[in-house]
Amino acid sequence: MALIVGLLGLLAGSVPAGEGSGTNPNDGYVGRTTCAGCHQEKARLHFDSPHRHTWKPVSALDDMPGLPQQASEGPIQHKVSKIDGKWSYTAQLPGRPAQVIPIHSIMGGERFGTSFILRAEEVEGRKLPSPALIEARFMIEAGTHRLKKSPGLFEGQPTSYDTALGRVLNPDFAGKCLGCHTGPVDVRLALAGGPHPQFGDVGVTCEQCHGPGADHVRAVENNEQNLGIVHPGKLSNPDLHKICSQCHSGFFSLVRPRPEDVLISNQVTALTSSECYIQSGAGLSCLDCHDPHSQAVEDDSVYEASCRNCHSAAVRTSTLCPVNPKDGCISCHMPANDQPGNFHLVDHWIRVVRR
Ligand code: HEC
Ligand code: HEC
Ligand code: HEC
Ligand code: HEC
Ligand code: HEC
Ligand code: HEC
Ligand code: HEC
């Protein structure tokens, strides 16, 4: 019942006017297949990257190893399986009818795991006035491909389907959630059950970082001087960070974040809070350490080379470390968050971490 009340309250709120309303969101976009035709090397990298794979239609579950899967949380059963040819999420509270909700899409990848977005039309036999999107309580763990509890959801043991199924996404948050993980979306289309990424691109696309490409393709074809496309590598660091900020600035607009607030999807705020960034006059950016077309490298020594661009006896533009001026910088100054049940995110606020 609580869920139904929650959903009714939610659906009374209006769908945000944003993507998908008013002007045609396809305007000016050409889609990544077009880009790939001329930029084969960048496209090859990008096609294998976590950015590309971070959103998948439900049909991708057909090829996911280890499914179907089930798990329990105390007396509550959770299951991901194909029922009547449809991938579905089942939750069962003791003594209550099981709830079988179709999976709409899956989000995430192989770093931490994959979340299920469910599309509910009815709950406990009652038809909802209009469908709702729900982030399922259990997700697929990267590597093992087993079900595990998603971080950030209700901590206690659920006693109603409200929390047992997961987290009901209000249209605003659903839009952000999908918007960070795939191309411009129309939440109304998603709620209606349609394929929501527009112009056929799924995951984070070329044009989310480079802007719409139609002018560029025209400029290239007409041999124009002005290439008509954003080259982020030619921007100042603060302007470059605005591009990444669309999705790497967390869920809140934190002006003075506390260390624990800056961990989740918030690398831009974290990095730009570092004395390294401030006192060097915006002298470092994501590109010092990452190629956004590729997966992040796992070898810390690669990242430490970037620290030594400024903190080394040879350069001496900044202080040397009294503890270890040569290596090991990342594990001490950008440690991974090791709270149990959480994603092991690297803390991008470079500082002397005192615990
Ligand atoms: C018809 C071929 C063609 C297509 C399609 C195309 N590009 Fe280009 N692009 C070029 C050429 C040629 C250049 C200039 C030489 C170079 O940098 O490779 C260029 C340059 C660029 C640059 C560098 C701009 C600069 O200021 O130096 C970026 C970034 C870029 N393209 C991104 C894209 C993206 C994103 C797409 C898809 C939306 C795309 N391109 C589609 C041919 C193309
Ligand atoms: C997550 C953001 C992001 C995505 C997605 C992305 N790029 Fe880029 N791209 C960048 C950044 C940042 C740079 C500047 C740094 C660099 O050159 O790698 C760049 C540079 C480029 C350049 C200029 C390279 C040069 O050497 O001058 C081209 C061309 C390009 N990207 C094409 C593409 C194409 C094609 C896709 C999709 C298949 C794509 N990018 C997807 C962020 C992105
Ligand atoms: C439209 C949203 C969006 C934009 C814009 C974006 N990212 Fe991302 N980025 C994501 C998401 C979502 C993930 C998580 C992908 C996954 O693992 O499923 C991610 C993951 C990453 C990763 C980790 C890759 C790995 O190996 O796990 C790096 C590094 C990264 N982004 C850098 C950048 C940089 C640098 C920029 C700006 C040039 C940028 N991103 C722009 C959404 C975005
Ligand atoms: C502000 C942008 C943003 C929003 C909103 C967002 N995410 Fe993410 N998500 C990211 C980024 C960036 C990452 C990469 C890891 C990190 O930095 O947290 C990520 C990582 C993930 C991962 C792990 C990916 C992997 O490779 O293992 C999952 C699963 C995920 N998000 C699901 C969701 C779901 C479900 C929602 C909505 C309820 C959501 N995200 C909302 C940006 C976002
Ligand atoms: C000084 C180096 C450095 C800079 C600058 C940097 N990163 Fe990272 N980043 C790392 C390291 C180290 C990892 C962990 C890689 C691993 O071991 O898989 C990482 C991992 C990530 C991940 C994967 C999730 C996580 O947090 O562990 C994302 C997303 C990411 N970086 C985004 C960004 C963005 C966006 C920027 C720019 C605001 C940025 N990074 C700047 C070093 C850096
Ligand atoms: C663009 C140059 C630059 C880069 C790259 C850089 N730093 Fe810094 N860092 C600075 C400056 C400037 C300061 C402040 C003045 C000083 O300590 O010299 C600073 C300060 C620090 C401090 C003290 C922070 C505080 O809050 O007092 C630590 C710790 C640190 N850096 C570690 C690192 C590590 C680790 C890396 C690589 C992950 C790194 N820095 C990369 C320039 C840089
Ligand atoms: C074993 C952990 C460890 C390693 C490895 C390490 N540091 Fe440190 N670093 C510290 C601690 C602890 C402090 C604070 C020392 C103090 O306040 O007396 C510190 C201080 C610093 C400072 C501030 C110095 C000042 O006087 O303000 C900088 C800059 C720094 N480290 C950079 C680095 C860089 C760059 C690397 C890699 C080349 C590195 N550190 C490796 C633990 C480490």
Molecular structure report:
- It contains 14 helices and 10 strands.
- It has 2 domains: 2-206, no CATH class; 236-333, no CATH class.
- Helix 2 (32-38) crosses helix 3 (40-47).
- Strand 8 and strand 9 (147-149) form a beta hairpin.
- The chain is α+β, with helices and mostly antiparallel strands.
- Strands 1, 2, 3, 4, 5, 6, 7, 8, 9 and 10 form a 10-stranded antiparallel beta sheet that branches.
- It has helices at 2-12, 32-38, 40-47, 50-53, 161-164, 171-181, 187-191, 206-210, 214-221, 237-248, 267-273, 275-279, 300-308, 329-333; strands at residues 55-57, 69-73, 76-83, 86-92, 99-108, 113-123, 126-136, 138-141, 147-149, 166-169.
- The model is unreliable at 1-24 (pLDDT under 50).
- One heme C is lined by residues 30, 34-35, 37-39, 206-207, 210, 213, 216-217, 220, 227, 229, 231, 234.
What are its keywords?
binds heme C; 2 domains; 28% helix; globular; 10-stranded antiparallel beta sheet; single chain; alpha+beta; 355 residues
List strands and helices in order, with pairings.
Blueprint: H1 2-12, H2 32-38, H3 40-47, H4 50-53, E1 55-57, E2 69-73, E3 76-83, E4 86-92, E5 99-108, E6 113-123, E7 126-136, E8 138-141, E9 147-149, H5 161-164, E10 166-169, H6 171-181, H7 187-191, H8 206-210, H9 214-221, H10 237-248, H11 267-273, H12 275-279, H13 300-308, H14 329-333
Antiparallel strand pairs: 1-5, 2-3, 3-4, 4-5, 5-6, 6-7, 6-8, 7-10, 8-9
Helix pairs in contact: 2-3
The structure holds heme C (7 copies).
Residues 304, 307-308, 311, 319, 321-329, 332-333, 352 line the site of one heme C.
